[in-house]
Write a structure and sequence with these properties.
Structural class: alpha+beta
Helix content: 25-40%
Strand content: 15-25%
Radius of gyration: 18 Å
Largest sheet: 4 strands, antiparallel
Strand order of the largest sheet: 1-2-3-4
Oligomer: single chain
Order of helices and strands: HHHEEEE
């Protein structure tokens, strides 16, 4: 019995280490996503790799926006990428994607992701668990003026 208990204690940190945190998963997603956009690959319409990062319900809605005729009868128009909240990626984004803060609310874990060397473009990824994995449910843009020096 002691051997089993000892084995469980030893394996516990290994199991926990293999589970990704919402911040780590959000950062990994954004690095991957920027890399795809830099290669002119648009993951919403190309392949299914994005499904490991974004919830099924969100992907269903996003794929619906790619259907012919979507938005023709309304004023729905997005002038920025839905995940980056920007029209284009900047040259320094590919190597500079960082999770800079985490905030939890009753709906999700909000992970603040900064882009660029100066970290001057920030989005908030609302991360939720889906089938045991942290995934992006939605993204919000953050616009503010820094009033403190680091």
């Amino acid at each position: 019995m002691k051997k089993i208990l000892l084995l469980l204690c030893m394996l516990s940190p290994i199991v926990n280490a293999s589970q990704s945190s919402p911040a780590k998963q959000a950062e990994e997603f954004n690095k991957w996503y920027v890399g795809q956009i830099a290669k002119d690959i648009y993951p919403i319409i190309t392949g299914r790799e994005i499904d490991k990062y974004v919830t099924a319900s969100t992907m269903k809605k996003l794929r619906h926006t790619q259907e012919p005729g979507y938005g023709e009868e309304s004023d729905v128009f997005y002038d920025a990428d839905l995940f980056l909240k920007a029209q284009d990626i900047r040259d320094d984004w590919l190597l500079n994607v960082t999770a800079i803060a985490v905030d939890t609310d009753p709906v999700c874990v909000n992970v603040y992701i900064a882009f660029g060397k100066k970290q001057d473009h920030i989005v908030i990824d609302c991360m939720v668990k889906e089938n045991g994995d942290w995934k992006v449910q939605s993204v919000a843009n953050v616009e503010f003026s820094r009033n403190m020096k680091n």
